[in-house]
Amino acid sequence: MNHDTYKTKLRERKRGREREMKNSTRTLRRRQSISRSLVSPRKNGAAQSAPRTNSLAAMADDRSSTVEGRERPPTKFLTHETTIKLIRNERDPQRALDVFNKSKSQRGFSHNHSTYFTILDKLARAKKFNAVDGIIKQMSFESCRFHESIFLNLMAHYSSSSLPEKIFDSFYLIQPFIRQRPSVRALSTSLNLLLECHRFDLAQRILSDMPNLKLAPNTCIFNIVLKYHCRKRDLDAAFGVLEQMRRKKCAPNVITYSTMMAGLCDAGRLKDAVQMFEEMIKGKILPDQMTYNVLISGFCRSANVDGAKRIMDFMRKNGCNPNVYNYSALLNGLCKDGRVDEAMSMFEEMRSSGCKLDAVSYTTLISCLCRTGRIDQAMAMVGEMKERNCKVDTVMVNVLIGGLCRESRFDDAMDIVEKMPREGVRLNKGSYRILLNFLCREMEMDKGMVLLGLMLERGVLPHYATSNDLLIALCKLGRPVDATNALYCLAERGFVPEIDSWAPLVELVCKERKLVKAFELLDDLVSAKLAFCWQHQIGDSGTFSPDGQSDACLEPQLHARHFPVLPTW
User: Fold this and answer.
1) pLDDT, tens digit, for every residue of 210-260?
2) Cα angle 518, 521, 522; round to 5
3) Higher pLDDT, 557 or 317
4) In terms of C-beta distances under 8 Å and separation of at least 24 residues, what long-range contacts does 436-440 make, across chains too?
């Protein structure tokens, strides 16, 4: 093909495309004119409307396959991967179930193991166990091949919801659906979860059925049973399991010995635990950090910190570097024994060894420093935690507040209570109550009233006894206005004072010669029909019932409507 022929063909193609564009433009204009005529028909166009309607229907049929010369894209088909992604991203379990059912209605689509696993996991996480049962029933009509992981995952969800019977049933559903016997992994998982739920009876039924299932117990199975007996402090049964392992020629491993040693240490039998450790060494089983931690914690709980330090030295000499749990266990023992300087040096060693310090280690040391009056060092530790991006938790804040209050540093304690929530630390009721108890005990009522206002503003109510102590302390200091304000604010939130609390307040108001206000306050308290419970209950008649009961016992309820506007003195 020469150059002139090629250029001629290009011109012909260009002219052809122009003709197609002109034809499509004429067709589009014709369709628009027909649509306009149908929207606003002529008065005498009844006879003409029928053929135009027929032509529109014909064009609609044409447009069903083409739109301006292009084919319409087919409806999107939900594949298995798309269905799994949609179910996982859906927050509402009901809508996730709708996606699962909608994909099933497609022609040529059938669910497989992955889609069933995903929807069952979604429903089980939402605790929709009735829907889970329905899906499992639907699985029985499927021809696809399932794996036992689908039931192992359900067992974990049943365990977190305290449904041991469901765990037991899931184990026996494996063989009908998988079409083969459960594996040793399925056996160990079900036994472990059942024992975590304290259902040894169901675990024993599975163990007794092992010959029928043609499953032989291995070291993992024996370790699970061994752990259960040690937690129940039934060491004789635990030693029996150990002997059975040896008869079955199932060699104990490091987990076996660690579990036995933990049970012996919990029972206070440290000598037996050390003998078990020596037997482990003679059997050429190398102990790991968890094994050493069992002994360190056991010696520390028995107030034998020196023995725990010797275990740590032996650990280093045998080439096993201590981890953060080993250091934390020994640090806790030193702090409980009052050996603060050694605890500080251990903490420095822990820091220099490269261990990542956690909140538990800091809390242990800060608590020890607060108990020994070293508040400034404890505050410095909190600052160091923030610099290392170690999260300050509520337990540590409560420890620090208690230490500051014992040193009468109430301003610093108030500053912590006020600022910590702004820094993302969520305080609990104990955080406020610790400080308020100390303020009432030390008669620091100015700070006590400020703290009460802060507590009520944040929706935290003082303890019942602390509220009464606050009112009594205000009355002892001769502050009727603050006492009345506190009583009204607490009463609006359902607080019912004891007679030892409001009686001194009425007496104080009378001494201030505010008799009218005293009578108003007394009327408010009586009209609220407070039922005070001391040694007996008081009935409507106002008399004590000798047996402590009354036919119409007054309910100790107090509502804001029972009180008028706060009086001005």
Assistant:
1) 888 888 888 888 999 898 889 888 899 899 989 988 888 888 999 999 999
2) 85
3) 317
4) 436/462, 436/463, 436/466, 436/470, 437/463, 437/466, 437/469, 438/405, 438/406, 438/410, 438/413, 439/410, 440/466, 440/469, 440/470, 440/473
